[in-house]
Amino acid sequence: MRLMTKLTPPVARKDPHTLSLHGHVLQDDYGWLREKESPETLEYLAAENAYTAAVMEPLQPPIDTLYAEMLSHIQQTDVSVPYREGRFDYYARTVEGEQYPIYCRVPAEAGSASRSLPPAEGFTDEEVLLNVNRLAEGQAFMSIGASVVSDDGNWLAYTTDNTGFRQYTLHVKNLVTGETLGSLAERVGSVTWAADDRTLFYSVEDEETKRPYEIVRRVLDEDGRSFSAGDAVWEDADERFNVGVGRTRDGQFLIVEAASHTTSEQWFLAATDPTGKLRCIEPRRDNIEYSADHRDGEFFIRVNDTGRNFRLVAAKVEQCGREHWQEVLPHRDDAMLEDVDLFRDFFVACERFQGLPRLRIHDLTGQGSLAEQAGQTPREISFPEPTYTTTPGTNREFDVKSYRYGYTSLVTPGSVFQYELATSESTLLKQLEVPGGFDRSLYASERIVATASDGVRVPISLVYRRDSFERGRNPVYVYAYGSYGYSLPIRFNSNRLSLLDRGVVLAYAHIRGGGEMGKPWHDAGRMMEKLNTFTDFISATEHLVAAGYGAKDRVGIEGGSAGGLLMGAVANMRPDLFRVVLSHVPFVDVMNTMLDASLPLTVAEYEEWGNPNEEAAFRYMLAYSPYDNVVAKEYPAMLVKTSLHDSQVMYWEPAKYVAKLRSLKTDNNLLLLHTNMQAGHGGASGRYDYLKEIAFDYAFLLWQLGVEKIEI
Q1: Which of 147, 207, 306, 533 has the highest CB neighbour number within 10 Å of its CB?
Q2: How crowded is residue 208: how many other Cβ atoms within 10 Å of its Cβ?
Q3: Is 561 a catalytic residue?
């Protein structure tokens, strides 16, 4: 490795290795960067960090300004809306100056759905369950995974990750005495209690692949100070499947699920019989997914057996196989049934229609069959804006007369509403306060449509500041993801005010590979259709420029993880279209990663990307793999960010990608790599530390788009 001067980037040494497969030779010059403990690897990452710091040093004043602005828009001491669960109301609060939330509860008040909104400092009779700030003392990283309280309210099981590798340790806290029973197990995923308040079920990951493969049962000893040795009650040998465990909303059953990207299977056990035998609802069938909840002796099952967009069926617990399924809601080509929230007297169908989410309430107190009751005209909660996100809120109780949901848009801060079944009216319980002079009337939000290269219409959500918008002249920032059927959430983020107030138009492209138009939208952007994801993004960007939402020479783009794959692919395909690229933890070394079955996620990911051991998939994936398609040509300016302890996209993918780009690109545009040496896939865990990362990114973006004038 050539050592750098202050503003000369490091150059990684080449150590060529080749792999011949399907008549093609893959050459990898930088595979040595996979040696995480190697002094040479750490030296290279440190050199890249030093180069990035040196280049960005003149931007420190704008970074500080952006950080101060973003911080001014955050209510630092705040509290969430309490929700009822059993004998208590639960909430979280934050305190100015502290990085992490404090999780609390108070005794429930008789006759109320939950307590009213507490003051910012919490209720006077609150009990602190977890103060994450105390757990984080002496740690560079801290994250809470699972957190579940026993039915009697006396025990809290929770998991922690102190590296960012998403490898969680299980703890149990006695909420009566305040004592914590040490580290109970490692590599723990989902966690739930049985109804006896003593038996704990949890999933365990494979040490090498990080696949949750096993369900373990442990019982609290009579003295309440230790647990029995682990007893494996379920194991799945199929490497495509991840397993998890939970409870139905009514608390009657434990549910064990095994799920791949395309197929699922569920087993159940009465929560009052934790040592009983698990029973299967319906054996797995390839490309059929289902999930079940329980009400009054029947399972309500959301399943995609008759169409990709799912239907809802019901069956008695005693006879729950598919030959006994009775249809409650039919499959519809024009609407995706994303989820079902089931309660004693109603259920909420969480749908996606014409690319937008909607909530439809179906009454279950009438006469006739379930299908006849559900088929009556549902009550639909209406939303006023052209593009928005609504999601189910925290609804832990089963026998209720109201429903919590969240709502937000690009100009509406996050809001919690409560819908009353008796009146069909929604009441705003809390809207996120945005201090620092936020005036939503200054901003405009739109939903437009671009035409893809094959004629498909691709939605785009937009927001900009009205008084700074000049058609064809503004810088434009385009964000997208486009994988795993994930629907890009359109929500308010006060951090982005710092871009909007500087005249940047923000655009969110709902490209194929996501879930905005249901399962078929995902299918059209995965496996042997993956190129649609990239061409959709290019078409969306071209449309934004042609329609005057941005200047053609002031286009910035961003994506992370699978969205980082998108960034790498479109930068290879159309580097002339973009001025600057922000790429976070990017999945760019597609071939080497997907050919290594020992890595976390690889085998399970065959159902999203394809299996390159098969020749057709190999050649298709090779055609877009960013690392394998870097060539000698001009590229946009890039800021590539990764984390040393990332378990989803290993740090070496972006490191190798940057090293190869440096050796081949023919331009003088900046190429920066920054590795967070103390975090994982999501970056810094503390809220202030994370805000500093955002300020850093925005300063680079604004500089490259010509908003900030800095000379180096």
Answers
A1: 533
A2: 9
A3: yes
